[in-house]
Amino acid sequence: MVTKLNLGCGFDKKEGFLNVDHMSTCEPDLTQNLEDFPWALETNGFDYILMKHVLEHLGADFQTFKQIMQELYRIAQPNGILEIHVPHYRHDSYWSDPTHVRAFTPFTFQMMSKRQNDAWIEQKGNYTMLAYAMDVDFELEDALQIYDADWLQKVESGEITRDQMRNLSKTSWGVVKEIQVKMRAIK
């Protein structure tokens, strides 16, 4: 039984995964439009779900985005890992594609944790309690910034230091190309 899911696989099908996409031309194992609910996937069926450059294309309105996150939560096994790669919102790769409908930061995914929401509620924080608003509970395990190759070259050539690049990534456009997060389904 396959317990790994490559959701929105496109032409990047992975061995040992159930490869799912809405485009039949990609020849996925399962054709599924991720904005049609419920998905034809088993509840608690997957211990690892990969979404590489998919989520930024989905859920232009909050209700649809909420249903997508609820479906991800439904199909994830307890303690299952959801790995998501999205373009950084301050990179041309995000803005150049007119099919991108939603931007993300690691903070977006942190908002999907009931533990974090509870801490904010106790602090009387002024944040959207996404975990409760969407009825999901994902604990952010890891968040990586993937730097643009031009900026990595500047580090390698000694033009700037890695610390300078990290500092620039907080305010400058084009430094970070992608965000990769891993979240654990808390059930």
Number of domains: 1
Mean pLDDT: 97
Helix share, percent: 25-40%
The CATH architecture classification is 3-Layer(aba) Sandwich
- Going by CATH, what is the homologous superfamily? Vaccinia Virus protein VP39
Main β-sheet: number of strands, strand sense, barrel status? Answer: 7 strands, mixed
Largest sheet, order of strands side by side?
3-2-1-4-5-7-6
CATH class: Alpha Beta
* CATH fold label: Rossmann fold
pLDDT < 50 runs, ≥5 residues: none
Order of helices and strands: EEEEHEHHHHEHHE
List keywords for this structure.
187 residues; 7 helices; 28% helix; 7 strands; seven-stranded mixed β-sheet; alpha/beta; Rossmann fold; single chain
3D architecture notes:
The chain has 187 residues and is of the alpha/beta class. It has a single domain, classed as Rossmann fold (3-Layer(aba) Sandwich). Helices cover 28% and strands 26% of the residues. The protein has 7 helices and 7 strands; from the N terminus they run E-E-E-E-H-E-H-H-H-H-E-H-H-E. The protein has helices at residues 62-75, 92-95, 106-110, 114-122, 130-134, 149-156, 162-169; strands at residues 4-7, 18-21, 30-31, 46-52, 76-87, 138-147, 176-185. The chain has a 7-stranded mixed sheet with strand order 3-2-1-4-5-7-6. The two termini are 21 Å apart. The model has no long low-confidence stretch (mean pLDDT 97).
